[in-house]
């Protein structure tokens, strides 16, 4: 039993390490996500009047739309790389429970998303003269990203195996992660405006509940998605 | 009280839409059924020839 | 697969009769509502379709779970049939609701919890159909369909409650005070009876349509199988 669980965690670690190491060398994923995120923020600048008085209320929305779209990009590329290089088949042959692959991919997807988010924050702070270094906000970003990536990894694994590939992921993902977006925007807004914890708490709750439920469900369903 | 003319207009419009969607779907089911039957006949003939 | 089973013929005739009965109930039996007058009558079919659509969605999710457990293609056919018919019923719900809303609330649409969730549900159905369209292997299609139905059906209740909480902080309805349409008029016993009758009618119609759609699915599967045999 001891050996089984260490093998499991080793497998997860191996997958995460493989993805991070590969990305360190090529940097194709992160650069694409970052540039895209910057462009989205740029577009928002012209699409919505980010006047100083409105900034406080609009910032959470702008941030989360940016993260949602950049996240889709990352998920798509991450799974496509897996499929194209045939790594997925190799991983499937390994004598480890399939869910290890799920956790490995989800963790590396999470890592990439967090890296992008952590770069976007200071850039946004500078461009719009808003201080985004708020521990509550950072917590929200972490929780929101976890939920997003939990469902996203599962759905991306499906989408990448279809004919319509890249186009399909946002169509599948967005209707389903609306609770996260809503809760994340409300929580972020609350923390940024230093609202009382009682108003923030219900949203934080939704975020946590969603994360727990969907990580569990996605982990259980992953087997059905990668059968060959 | 909403004026009769307005109210009846919207009600009729609403029911027309309801019927249109419902019967539209029934028709689509029927059309698809017929097409599949035809495909089946064609394929069975091809099978006989083989 | 040649002739219609007797049960289905019975259900079809029953559905037709019940439907005619529903029309009588709505247009003759049910009294006129005090404020909204005739347009309120849309409510009966609107509510029936909404409820049955929801149940259909849940049926699809259950069929999905059974498929994943048993791997029997029959359940995939049931799941697809349930989703498709629920999609139709929900389209009716949204369309009729919108037409009812215009004279009642002064707007075709409002972003309240029910309407928004209904719209999201439609999008999930459509996403499901698009997902299936992009897959050629029937077995993979069934697997992925079942997974998405599950994920979708889990997220919808959470979405609904989230929007509700959102709304209490930012009430966004233009016009009428309460956006929960059911409570916006008092229902007399005759109206209640009509509503429940329509609910029952559309439940029967749903089952009948489901049966037809499942038969269609079975036929489609057979055609696909023979196609593969002939093409070899």
Tell me what you see in this structure:
The complex is a heterotrimer of chains A (228), B (50) and C (232). Chain A is an all-alpha fold. Helices cover 86% and strands 0% of the residues of chain A. Chain A has one domain (2-225). Chain A is built from nine helices and no strands. In chain A, α3 (52-84) packs antiparallel against α5 and α5 (98-128) packs across α6 (135-159). Chain A is globular, with a radius of gyration of 18 Å. The two termini of chain A are 27 Å apart. Helix content of chain B is 92%, strand content 0%. Chain B is mainly α and 50 residues long. Chain B is rod-shaped and about 75 Å long. Chain B starts with a helix and ends with a helix. Chain C is globular, with a radius of gyration of 20 Å. Chain C has one domain (7-23, 43-231). By secondary structure, chain C is mostly helical. Chain C has helices at 6-29, 42-70, 73-105, 113-133, 138-169, 189-231. Residues 171-183 of chain C have low confidence and may be disordered. Chain C contains six helices and no strands. Chains in contact: A-C, B-C. Chains A and C meet through α6, α7, α8 and α9 of A and α4 and α5 of C.
């Amino acid at each position: 039993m001891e050996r089984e669980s260490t093998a499991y965690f080793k497998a997860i670690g191996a997958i995460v390490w493989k993805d991070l190491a590969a990305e360190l060398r090529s940097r194709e994923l992160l650069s694409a996500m970052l540039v895209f995120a910057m462009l989205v923020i740029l577009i928002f600048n012209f699409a919505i009047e980010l006047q100083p008085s409105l900034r406080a209320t609009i910032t959470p929305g702008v941030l989360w739309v940016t993260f949602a779209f950049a996240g889709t990009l990352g998920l798509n590329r991450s799974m496509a790389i897996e499929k194209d290089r045939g790594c997925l088949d190799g991983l499937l042959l390994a004598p480890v429970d399939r869910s290890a692959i799920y956790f490995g991919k989800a963790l590396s997807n999470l890592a990439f998303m967090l890296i992008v988010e952590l770069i976007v924050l200071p850039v946004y702070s500078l461009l719009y003269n808003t201080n985004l270094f708020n521990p509550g906000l950072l917590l929200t970003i972490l929780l929101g990203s976890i939920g997003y990536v939990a469902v996203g990894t599962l759905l991306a694994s499906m989408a990448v195996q279809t004919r319509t590939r890249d186009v399909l992921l946002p169509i599948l993902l967005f209707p389903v992660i609306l609770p996260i977006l809503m809760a994340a925007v409300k929580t972020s807004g609350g923390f940024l405006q230093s609202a009382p914890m009682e108003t923030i708490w219900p949203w934080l709750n939704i975020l946590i509940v969603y994360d727990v439920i969907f990580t569990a469900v996605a982990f259980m369903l992953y087997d059905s998605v990668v059968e060959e | 009280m909403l004026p009769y003319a307005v109210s009846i207009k919207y009600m009729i419009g609403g029911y027309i839409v309801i019927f249109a969607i419902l019967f539209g779907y029934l028709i689509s089911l029927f059309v698809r059924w017929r097409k599949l039957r035809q495909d089946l006949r064609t394929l069975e003939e091809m099978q006989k020839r083989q | 697969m040649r002739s219609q089973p007797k049960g289905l013929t019975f259900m079809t005739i029953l559905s037709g009769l019940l439907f005619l009965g529903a029309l009588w109930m709505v247009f003759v039996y049910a009294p006129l509502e005090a404020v909204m007058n005739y347009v309120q009558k849309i409510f009966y079919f609107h509510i029936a379709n909404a409820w049955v659509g929801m149940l259909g969605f849940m049926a699809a999710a259950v069929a999905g779970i059974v498929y994943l457990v048993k791997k029997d293609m029959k359940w995939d056919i049931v799941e697809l049939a349930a989703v498709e018919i629920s999609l139709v019923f929900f389209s009716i719900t949204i369309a009729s609701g919108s037409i009812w809303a215009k004279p009642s609330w002064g707007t075709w649409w409002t972003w309240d919890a029910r309407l928004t969730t209904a719209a999201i549900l439609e999008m999930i159905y459509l996403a499901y159909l698009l997902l299936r369209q992009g897959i050629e292997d029937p077995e993979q299609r069934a697997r992925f369909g079942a997974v998405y139905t599950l994920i979708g059906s889990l997220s919808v209740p959470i979405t609904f409650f989230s929007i509700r909480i959102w709304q209490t902080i930012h009430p966004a309805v233009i016009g009428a005070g309460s956006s929960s349409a059911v409570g916006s008029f008092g229902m007399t016993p005759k109206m209640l009876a009509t509503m429940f009758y329509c609910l029952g009618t559309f439940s029967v119609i749903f089952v009948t349509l489901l049966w037809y759609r499942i038969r269609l699915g079975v036929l489609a599967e057979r055609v696909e199988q023979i196609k593969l045999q002939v093409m070899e």
